[in-house]
Specification:
By secondary structure, the chain is α/β, with parallel strands linked by helices. The protein has one domain: 3-Layer(aba) Sandwich (Rossmann fold), CATH 3.40.50.1240. It has 7 helices and 6 strands. The chain has a 6-stranded mixed β-sheet with strand order 3-2-4-1-5-6. The radius of gyration is 16 Å and the shape is globular.
């Protein structure tokens, strides 16, 4: 089995109005001001990423726009494969709620660094446990489909935490302690010996 290297990047910052509520898998816009102000970060990240590489985004436009912005700042334009199983955690009926309205709806104490605990299941949504299972299966499949190659994935904070949790075999609440910033880079390598974590949340230009 050949080694497959994954370069996972969290999408750019979303619009300020969207950040006021729980958006989960809602297709919210990016912050246009930040896209302009962070040009040096996009340039640094474009230089950092491997060439050639397979590029993968999720069905949400914020991942595709992030990829397109990287192309405009120096990375040669690529075709973008869409992988639905690397999408953000679905918060079901709680999506669209202002953050302040969520706590009374929780059955379990919220996580310190995430709106809900790893085993809390929103009505019509997913637990973090289910996200780790979904993302883990996708990562294993992509590692086989693109064996021996570099794969750049533009995804979401929850999904990237889930990918690291799968690689390290850690519990959901432990994974939620990881900080994944917008444009942060996480490197996971699928090797014959198993998964290896090269870096988590490396920020471009630092």
């Amino acid at each position: 089995m050949m080694e497959t290297n994954f370069w996972l990047i969290r999408h750019a910052l979303v619009d300020e109005n969207a950040r006021a509520f729980l958006y989960g898998v809602m297709d919210v816009p990016l912050c246009e001001t930040t896209l302009l102000e962070q040009a040096p970060m996009y340039q640094a990240l474009a230089r950092r990423l491997p060439r050639p590489a397979v590029w993968v985004v999720t069905p949400l436009s914020r991942t595709r726009r992030t990829a397109e912005t990287l192309f405009r700042h120096g990375y040669p334009e690529q075709s973008l494969a869409v992988e639905p199983d690397l999408i953000e955690q679905s918060l079901g009926e709680w999506q669209g709620l202002p953050h302040a309205e969520l706590p009374p709806k929780l059955l379990l104490p919220k996580h310190a660094f995430w709106p809900l605990a790893g085993n809390e299941k929103p009505p019509g949504g997913e637990t973090m446990i289910e996200v780790i299972d979904r993302v883990g299966r996708a990562m294993e499949r992509l590692a086989v489909d693109h064996a021996g190659r570099d794969v750049v994935v533009i995804s979401h904070g929850g999904a990237i935490r889930a990918a690291v949790a799968h690689a390290l075999k850690i519990e959901p609440d432990t994974a939620l302690h990881m900080s994944i910033h917008n444009l942060g880079l996480t490197r996971l390598d699928h090797t014959p010996e198993g998964w290896r974590v090269a870096c988590v949340n490396e920020l471009p230009g630092y």
